[in-house]
What does this fold into?
Amino acid sequence: MEHRYLKIALTLAVALQALFWFGTNLINWDVAQGAVGYVLSQEDHLGYPNHLVPPVTSPLIITVVLLTILVGEAAAGGLALLGTYRLWRARNASPEIFTSAKGPAVLGSGIAVLVWFLLFAVLGGALYQMGQAEGTRGALEGAFRFAGYSFFTLIYLSISEPR
It folds into this structure.
């Protein structure tokens, strides 16, 4: 039974993390848009001055990328929150019912991994080399932690509870 409560708590943590970042980015729209624009512009890349992709400065593309991040954070948070609720309701149910209640929690945690691993680490970090610029290194390091927390939760959710 304690595993079920831990899964519920970890899923809630993923939900809150994603929703807090969604809210922070939303209420700081101009700052978030500036940060995304800075990454896509590839400014201040001294270590690797040659790029695989051209710098992007189009306000429309910058806005679309930021909206993609926001939608991902909102989806991860909303699904994980729904998953928390469903797991809580199934906490005393049979193993089959509890397992079937995991769907939104798994999906929310998986989307959180994709937001902070795929969008930030792979595309932002590797493709756009955001780790080279002093102002974006912290976001890249944070994304690693957030993806890790979400991935650990996803793995733990996938493990069957002992009988």
Q: What stands out?
A: The CA atoms of residues 132 and 141 lie 12 Å apart. The chain has a mean pLDDT of 94. Residues 59-89 form the longest helix (31 residues).
